[in-house]
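In response to reviewer comment 3 from the previous cycle, which asked for concrete evidence that the modeling workflow produces usable outputs, we include below a single protein chain processed end to end. The sequence was submitted unchanged, and the resulting structure tokens are shown without manual editing.
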Amino acid sequence: MNKGPNLVMQTKQKEMLVVMTALSFIEQNALITQAQLNDARRSLQALFIRTSGEETMLRKLVEILKVNKDLHEAFSSISKISASISSSVEIIGKKIHYLKQYVTRLQLTPKENADFFTPFLTFTHQFQEKILLFNKLMMDYLELREDEAKRANEFRIAEDASRRLKLRLSGKLGVTAGGEVEESMKQEVLGNFDFAGAKASMIDAERKSRTEAKEISDLLLELKAMCQMAMNPDMREKLEGTEQYDDIFMRFTNSLKQYPRLAQIKDFIIDYFKLYQRAYGMFQLDFDNFNKAVETITSNTEEYFDAKQEDEDMRVKREKLRKYEGLIPFLEHTSELISEYVDYPFDKFSRKVSEVISEEDRPWEHINEELLVSKVTAESDLTTRLD
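The workflow returned the following structure tokens.
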């Protein structure tokens, strides 16, 4: 009977997801001023108008300053992604350590402890163990992918050399080799060339990488399952085949009603719920980006090391303009999604937005990784709101 009001609320949530994603992206890249950001928060249309105006002015400036230079974007370093993961895990570890110290100073009653704080710390400890394991697995995965790349390269060399060798020995000099001795030598040369061994090593390296990747994917799924328990139940996604975790969000909302002093640290607790959401989202993106980087470098070895220099100020302006060139069509498209998928629940709509961001051959393809990061931040804010 309340479908009308619920539909309005769901539509508002979807619009807020789009707006907050764009705002997070804009703020991270300093595309408009703080005053303009505040103005843009009012609606999707205001955000679009603001960014369009800024893009137009910047485009005019770039056209005036345009120089005739080719630009090559260097690929992100794989090791940089791994270092980022380790750094993130360390930062989260410090936050969790602070949480544990903070709770010990609260002088809790046994009931407060049993109803919320003990389960909360247990949940947090489980989460920390999983991200520490994720960090270890990613470091192992880096070594495995490096070894896989080496073995694949060795195999390509071996395959090419083997082909050339067979071609050479099937030519005039090989065919006309005189007598049994020459033929025996020919077979020995072909037999001693370890083409099969190189292929076997490559297949073994690929198998190890796939096994490690599967273990990381399974772990990320468990982190996602934990995050579901730290968000508003109305916005959760049903996951199959994962471990059951304590519903820490509902424990907190129920405890808020029973223990008034919890209201004084409500925002402090919610910040940790947001931390879980962001951590999972960022680690999933890191894993995806890591795999993309490996494939990109493998297929574009020369380009990976090719970067041309230009005036720094000009480069910054060009980069900013390209961000606008991606953001504006993204806003146009996602605003249509809100009405097009009006019957979708929030979690399904959210997945649709992620899919759209990740689509290839889109005007925003060059900023899709940053948009996904911004969406993770926006969604963590939305899904942990108590109201």
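Residues 63-76, 301-309 have pLDDT under 50 and may be disordered. We consider this sufficient to address the reviewer's concern, and the full set will be provided in the supplementary archive.
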